[in-house]
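Sample entry (646 residues):
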Amino acid sequence: MRMQSLPLLAGLALAGSLALAPLVRCANGAGTPDPAAPATFTGARRGIPAPPPPLDAQEDEAQGEATADAAPAAKARASAPGTLSATPPSTVLIPTRTRVPVGSDVKDLEAVLEEAPGLASIFLAETPAHTMRVDEFHLMVTEVTNEQYAVFVEAMGAQPPMSWGTAAVTDAQRAFVEAEGERIREAREKGLPAPERRSFDPIEWWEANWKDAEWSLPDRIRTAPVSRVNYADALAYARWAGMRLMTEFEFQSAGRAEKKQLYPWGDEWKDSGAAIAQGDQADPIPVGSRPDGRTPEGVHDLLGNAWEWTSSPYMPFPRYKQVKLEVGKRGERREVTGQPEWDSSKRVVVGGSVQNTAIAARLTTRRGTERIQRTNSLGLRCAATPKPGVDHAVALQLRAGLLGEGMADTTRTLALDRWRVEPGTAKVENYAVVQGYEAVVVVPPERLGFLSASELATATLTDGPQPLVVLSTTLPLSKPELPAGDYLVSFRGPGKDRSKPDEPVEQAARQTNQDGASASPLAEMLDTGTASFIFSKLDGTPVAVLGGIEAPRYERPDKEILNGRVAVVVDEDGKRGADLLRFTVVVPGRTNATSAFVFDLPLELASKALAGPWRPYRPHNGVRNKAGREARAPGGASLRRRDAIA
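Predicted structure, serialized as tokens:
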């Protein structure tokens, strides 16, 4: 396939056509704020209840930055308003595709490089063209809008975009100019040399003062894509909403399906398909304003409007190699070469924006971007994994060694999750506004380092309680009595401590490592006569004990529970006084034997806390049998509300 000639609009510098343009600055260095917002600012932060304190959460090491009060979705409030939804809101399901075209061949880029040879290092990052399998996923039908993002900002106390505080920024700039003039006048009156002029930086001011400034969401941009969000902001919103950022390959799957096309509608550019640079338009427009760009599944604005963050590091495709290419007419041929500035700390942004020409609005364009970047043309779109709780589990960023020898196996996550939603004001099919995310999630390890139930039980007495799973819940538990949060669940068999008495130092170290504190807090809660689950914070501090439980079994799992099971009993008549939830967890032992450790984790929640729809559990994802084929458990694939819990 040859690249079609792309229209370049007059008046827009080609060298900047892929730029993520920062705030425009005046000649004296002062920033020019956004156009005027509503005349009356309500001070949206005033009168809003303080968000709940953050739960323990791992720092996103790959991200490396933090935003105010930004944390995983475990901070979602169970009291959030809205209608319950058992599917990721504002999304459609993009099916599994086995041969998604990714990238471009060098020959495909000839037309682009003829018009933009100075951008060779950017465009050649698309090479070489190849195909890949992209599993099914949910994708938001629009970019995240300002009204969607506003719920997150208010719920979490997160930083609002600077465009919501235009009046505050303008007032601060006016006060700065007045103070600067007064400073110069005072120097002159004293006969001193005029001090060096300082410039007002609106971005820097907003970063430092947004917590105390008044702001509100202007009505004119409610349904436009939120912008001026950096990677940390985007990641925090996605986690709060119970979703994640899409990968660049999911973006191409959504736009190209299995066709090697440049645009969601084909290979021929049409102006009605995407919002790109036109006239003085510098800010994103309401989502869905270019319906001709809609994909068959119903996804809008994949191209144009706002650049979109992905979770993909800016790294070369497989078999990438630097190339030299001659472009131009005969007799005017010139050599074009360029080496992309690969950097795994950068993230790929896709789609182009209203500040770019059509040369950027191609499904293959991948722009390496610093994660701290905030501009008025950079936003996000969320995706979600179909299996419940997996995105939440991955967002926990569980550290190595937390679950003993085995790493956390997020592919075998067991979970209930759902959303609370409101319709929203954008006139786009399937569009909705997330009000909160609810989940109870269990993450097992890849394996337990034992070969029998007795070996495991003995180790709990000689080496201390053994970690089994991580439990993350946005809902408080009544048994054990725990607030919403993230917990390490360990097992201790019945019996007295058998650690060697002649090694008190090592014994104390083992106890501290396993329980996260001195033995005394745990000893006060523990009944050594029964098998127990010990619930600890992720830093190791024990907070609760559930005694009298059934010890893990080492056996060949029934096919109905091959990959675990979730069972629920809702206290519909109020007689029981609690809703019951049981996770049946299956974890391989030290070898690849057909037997595995099987145990039940019983939990209780407030009466009717689990009423209503939940996303159906799909136990077969990612698990393969000895022959390498995907193993399925037909009898255990559904969540049954009235399963009895032993």
